[in-house]
Amino acid sequence: MKKKVIVNGACGRMGQEVVKTIVLEREEILVGVCDRVNAGKNIMDLLALDAEELIINDDLEKLIRETGPDVIIDFTIPTVIMENIRIGLTNGVNMIVGTTGITEVDLENIEKMARDNKANILIAPNFALGAVLMMQFAAEAAKYFSNVEIIELHHDQKVDSPSGTAIKTAELLNQKRDTMRDSELEEIEKISGARGADAEGVKIHSVRLPGLVAHQEVIFGGEGQTLLIRHDSYNRKSFMPGVKLALDKIDQISGLVYGLEHLLD
Ligand code: NAD
User: Using the 8-state DSSP alphabet, how is residue 3 labeled?
Assistant: First the structure.
């Protein structure tokens, strides 16, 4: 049976892509769109889609009551995501969350909320299947190379850094690698931050530039060799197969699942 879906953050870059995908592919039914901007306007006009009118609402809780969705897909902003998750889960609605900025403490609270309300929630810092594979390949390589740094590159409108993908990659690397080779060097940072952020020994460097979408390099170094694993999302369509996979499987998970890799066979 087709699922009834609300897209929250529907006017944002990711939200628009999700709305287009659902409307054009017709595998699910878009019952509501929510955003704090453009309330009262028809989203189909905004996106130049030839489909039945759907008015943008700015009150998620009210929209849930009015439309009785099976799933909420959230691509909003880090400062509001916990409140959105609270609204979705306490109303017993399953959620698919791509919004970044969720901390480990947040995850503990979310897990409890999902359990208490018998709702499922899939949170993925990256919905691009290639990026999920990049993280898996990097985790595999970390068994053999303990010296590693991450460069993540995103468009200049991204507010949080490092990216959720970089943080998750560093966590995976740290589960697999030995401690780094001891260096005799006492490093001097002539400009603060030059050596990047430190995620328990894994340096993360964040680049923000117009023209970029979402890219990441994981660079391993060993005696006389380096290994580079790189993934590029050139446009936001790259995230849609992952979002559709999550839509297919959201009923089959139990409580909180963090990371799209858990949905892959
Ligand atoms: P964006 O700024 O273009 O869109 C965010 C939208 O959320 C805006 O339209 C904004 O008006 C809306 N919004 C803000 N507060 C809201 C609220 N309280 N209720 C409803 N709507 C609200 O951002 P974007 O590029 O679309 O990215 C959205 C989020 O998704 C970011 O956190 C980004 O890092 C993340 N992201 C995740 C993935 C992934 O694969 N997981 C990929 C790309 C981006």
Answer: P
Sheet strand arrangement including 202-208: 197-199, 202-208, 147-154, 214-222, 225-233
Mean pLDDT of all residues in 26-47: 97
Tell me, yes or no, whether 100 and 206 share the same domain.
no
- Split at pLDDT 50, 70, 90, the class of 14 is very high
Q: What is the pTM of this model?
A: 0.90
- Tell whether the model's pLDDT for residue 17 goes beyond 70: yes
| CA dihedral for 9, 10, 14, 19, sign (positive or negative) | positive
**Pocket perturbation via mutation, ligand 1, pick of 62, 77, 161, 213 by most ligand atoms within 8 A of CB:** 77
- What is the β-pairing status of strands 29-34 and 56-57? parallel
**Residues noted as catalytic:** 154, 158
Say if residue 117 is in the same domain as residue 23.
yes
